[in-house]
Amino acid sequence: MSGVRISPPVLTQTGVMKKIINYIKDSYNELVFKVSWPSRTELTSSAVIVMIASIMMALVVWGVDSVFDRVVKLFYGLL
Fold it and tell me: What is the mean predicted confidence (pLDDT) over 3-23?
């Protein structure tokens, strides 16, 4: 029995396009109707908090780096 082998159905191009279009529509509907967006004042206050926290972390890293630099210079100065 040497017949022609027929492969199982493959997802057609239109099926792929329908899935992509449905995904985009669902994403849009979720962003527009289900997501709660912050007000301008909430966004501004959050941004200020993030900036202050970033500056504080930068100062801490700078301080640790300065102390480590002095310790290494002292250590190599003794050799």
Answer: 72
- CA distances from residue 58 to 41, 64, 65, 78 in whole angstroms, order as listed: 26, 10, 10, 30
Q: What does the alpha-carbon distance between residue 44 and residue 37 come to, in Å, rounded to a whole number? A: 13
CB 46 within 8 A of CB 38: yes
Q: Concatenated DSSP letters for 22-77?
A: HHHHHHHHIIIII--PPPHHHHHHHHHHHHHHHHHHHHHHHHHHHHHHHHHHHHHH
Question: The whole model's pTM is what?
Answer: 0.56
Reported as a single tens digit per residue, the pLDDT across 53-68 is: 999 999 999 999 999 9
